[in-house]
Amino acid sequence: MPVQYVLGEWDFQDLTLKMKPPVFIPRPETEDLVSLIVEEESQKREKNSGLCLPVPVPHPVILEIGCGSGAIALSLLGKLLQSRVIAIDKEEAAVDLTRENAQRLQLQERIHILHHDVSYSSAKQLLVWGPIDFIVSNPPYVFHEDMASLDAEILCYEDLDALDGGDDGMRVIKTILALAPSLLKDSGSVFLEVDPRHPDMVENWLQAHPNLLLILRAIHKDFCGKPRFLHIQKQSR
């Protein structure tokens, strides 16, 4: 059994989170996904503060798709003190664990947690606080043919639906990208963790769907030097 489940808790960013099988265990590299959003929001605020806008810039609304233990969502609430997060997961065990971790960390007032399987018709349920600044997800992205080669410990104990991305590893990624334009503010962003083979595949897919008005703005490497994180932005009409 993974040590995180044995201990019943694990650290992510500056938080200690409760862990329960079979909810997906957050990996260390995913901490970079949180840092990228914090950095982007900080740059946005800096840019806007230099513009002397008459109305203060609203604090960000963030949607996390596939919240698992709540690691990403709760870290963002901890780092961006005025932000609000909508966190969704299709597994009830994950939703319950995110809710429990939010209460333990006293962050429950700024998070809306939904038991929901994201689909092309999800927009209405997810706009509870209006248009969204950031969509973030560490979706299932393992190519189906690679599932059998994962560590036995993962295959035995963790939720495999949180890992298996279908034949091309992009089953959920495509759903998120197709839904994003109806959720995001103009110039809003999607941040995704992906397989190192995905950046080119995602860029080609976006070029084949120009009506989505999404562009791949940046590819960031993980601490092993592999292309792991995508920053995709909605273009203003």
Structure description:
This protein has 237 residues and is of the alpha/beta class. Helix content is 34%, strand content 24%. It contains eight helices and nine strands. It has helices at 3-7, 31-49, 71-79, 92-104, 123-126, 152-157, 171-183, 198-208, and strands at 9-12, 15-18, 61-65, 84-89, 111-115, 132-137, 184-193, 214-221, 227-234. Helix 4 (92-104) links the parallel strand 4 (84-89) and strand 5 (111-115). The mean pLDDT is 94.
Summed up:
With 237 residues, the protein is of the alpha/beta class.
Comma- or semicolon-separated keywords:
two-stranded antiparallel ribbon; 7-stranded mixed sheet; 9 strands; 237 residues; alpha/beta
SSE blueprint and pairings:
Layout (H helix, E strand, L loop, with lengths): L2 H5 L1 E4 L2 E4 L12 H19 L11 E5 L5 H9 L4 E6 L2 H13 L6 E5 L7 H4 L5 E6 L14 H6 L13 H13 E10 L4 H11 L5 E8 L5 E8 L3
What order do the strands of the largest sheet run in, or round the barrel if closed? 5-4-3-6-7-9-8
Average residue-wise pLDDT: 94
Biggest pleated sheet? 7 strands, mixed
**What is the structural class?**
alpha/beta
Which of globular, elongated, flat, extended, rod-shaped describes the shape?
A: globular
Low-confidence spans: pLDDT under 50, at least 5 residues? none
